[in-house]
Amino acid sequence: MALPIPASGFDAIPTRDRLLKAAQEEILDAGFFAASTDRIVQRAGASKQTLYSHFPSKERLFQEVLLLTVAEAIGPAPPAVDMLGLEDALRVHARWAEAASSQPANLELYRANIAAATRFPDLAAELHRLRSQPTSLVDLLVREQRDGRLPSIAPERLFSWCGLLAIGGPRQFLGLDPTPAEHQARLNGLLQMFLGGWREPLPEAPALSTPPPQDACPSRAAPPAGKGGRLSPDRWTDMLRCAARRFCEAGFRQTSVEEIAGLSGISKMTIYKHCGNKQGLFAAALDRAVDDLLDQRAPLPDAPDIGAALVEIALEQDRLAQSEAHVQLMRLLVTEAPTQAAIVQRAWLRLIAPPREALAVRLDQWRAQGAIAVPDCMVAAEQFLLLAGRGNRRLTDRIVWDEAEAAQHAREVAAIAYR
């Protein structure tokens, strides 16, 4: 979290540093989009003229604040694990990654970093690299590769995958804390991938039956019908898409129902009648955005070879995760989680449920054939799709799509899971 400015000696702090600290507190308290220069100068005991004499623009001030916050919020140094065995090292590193990412300061920083990504993509990419510095685990992974116990994948990539699986992708940032049983299942999935893949049984991890696919959240709602046909389903759908785009651009607090009404040509009264309030509109817009993304999904491939099928599944997941609509929606969900938790959690669970459950059923079939030894097919499916879609990386970093690189990434994800 932001370090408070001591009451004593306040005036002794250089003006530029006071402004940076005040801006840092404002961004972490109010959010990136809603941060106000009026409140910043008030916090710092300065004037706007003084602010702009030190920082030529609000954007420049925010850039420097985010760089400053990275240095303060990284948290305790990662533990040295290079002298441990691989399993013990993975357990230690997973505990550290989970604890570090759950610190309030890191959660706040991450959300500010994501909000900044659309406005300052180069800065967001640099912040991502600063927060992703490798540890001694990389040295251990190199040795394991040299001894033939891990596939030939860049050690830095394996390191990032370990951290990603440890924290459950965006779950922590969305406020979806695991139960003890879910936490253990997630750790088991991580260990199995790194200690031998899905073909190697994980000791002391009994196989769990995979339930038939079912909606994690309510199905999509039918659009309202206007009296006398005045409001067609198509117009309502267009309004929800317009609202989703605007929420993604400006965030929940900075978007008004009046603005959506003006952009869509549907009266504010009509929107309130069908949505109840702004939160209802937000939920409906997210549902529409999720439905549009799910409509783009193709059925799982029927390739007879498991390895080839997993490569196809990974490539398709990566391609969908690369879409601008998916990236913008995920950024919105994470940044709005502190104040709109129930709504964003529901949207995310609706987004991941169909592909996760379809792959879990396929894994269950392969397990019944004796081809894999996955203890929990639902967890394994979510973790595989998480790696295939590159986890949280697209939220704060730019990835230029390259077909050859994407195909190689898909092969590597399939290799760590099934080898």
From TrEMBL:
Residue ranges occupied by any HTH tetR-type domain in the UniProt entry: 13-73, 233-293
> Which terms does the record give in the GO molecular function aspect?
DNA-binding transcription factor activity; transcription cis-regulatory region binding
Q: Which InterPro entries match?
A: Homeodomain-like_sf, HTH-type_TetR-like_transc_reg, HTH_TetR, TetR_C_Proteobacteria
The entry's DNA-binding region: 36-55, 256-275
Region (Disordered) spans which residues? 203-230
> Which Pfam families does the protein's record reference?
TetR_C_7 (PF14246), TetR_N (PF00440)
- Which SUPFAM superfamilies has this protein been placed in? Homeodomain-like
Q: Which UniProt keywords apply?
A: DNA-binding, Transcription, Transcription regulation
Entry annotated with the keyword Transcription? yes
| Domain of life of the organism encoding this protein | Bacteria
Protein's name according to its UniProt entry: Transcriptional regulator, TetR family
Tell me the classification of the organism that encodes this protein: Bacteria, Pseudomonadati, Pseudomonadota, Alphaproteobacteria, Sphingomonadales
